[in-house]
Amino acid sequence: MIRLTREFRFFWRSGETFDRSSNSWAGSGGSLLAAPFQLLRSTVTGRVDARTGYLVNIQVLDRAMAEFCNEYVAANANGTDLLAFIRTTPNISRHLPDGIQLLESELVVTPYLSLKLVVEPAMDVLLTEQCEFSAAHRLHSNSMTAEENRDYFGKCNNPAGHGHNYVVAVTVAVPALGDVGFSLPTFEHLIKTHVVDRLDHKHLNVDVPEFAGLNPTVENIAGVIWQWLSNIELGGSLRNVRVYETPKTWADFSQPMI
Ligand code: NI
Asked: What backbone phi and psi angles, to 5 degrees, belong to 224?
């Protein structure tokens, strides 16, 4: 299967009329007005045209998203919430040519919050929010000798430890239809109390009981956070925990879909 994703960059302001030209590099639409900047992404599938090599012309996708946004703003002049917006994005399909199927749409609200609607195979909204914590750790395996630890983990085995600024992205699924009962402030509070407060400004090997006998690698940190969060009611079903140890290294923990 081939999938094509196009990102529509726009500013959200009342009375705005979107057109394809809204999708400039900076999403500026030719102005420097202050307004909420957002990204809307559509992922589509279909057949690649043998003559052009295109699945669909990206200008068609730009126009479809612009027209969807125009319709949405016109129908919701008094504002909306983000869940309501993302739930309506299957209507982008109305502006797509025959044979082009919308698989996913995603609204990136800020670098730290995004909502993705999985149209196929299941109508779910995947909400992802990032948080951060700073911590020290020492990579050391109790099942290896001191020399083996030094050889294998190198400078990460430094006896006094070293630190990282970790970024955690938690993804939960909420139903795309019906009363979801999801509250972002409640979700954020749960992430803070169950994750950040247990890890932030701690030495993981020393201060966090889960790592007393478990090497605090980024893989194991993701697994421990998953265990903590899987035992509480988040307002949606937990789908993924991503932990960035550095901008170049991250681990995802999830469970296979049943
Ligand atoms: Ni490290």
From this structure: -65, -45
Please give the distance, rounded to the nearest whole angstrom, from the Cα atom of residue 228 to the centre of ligand 1: 21
Cβ partners under 8 Å of residue 14, min gap 6: 73, 77
Residue at which a domain ends, from 121, 149, 164: 121
- Residues 68 and 146 grouped into a single domain: no
Return all residues near 138 (Cβ < 8 A) that are at least 6 apart: 156, 157, 158, 159, 160, 161, 162, 205, 216
**Among 71, 156, 188, 203, which one carries the catalytic annotation?**
156
Tell me the β-bridge partners of 106: 41, 116
CATH at 50: 3.30.479.10
Residues 35 and 110 in one domain: yes
- For the segment 105-126, what is each residue's pLDDT rounded down to a tens digit? 999 998 999 999 988 766 789 9
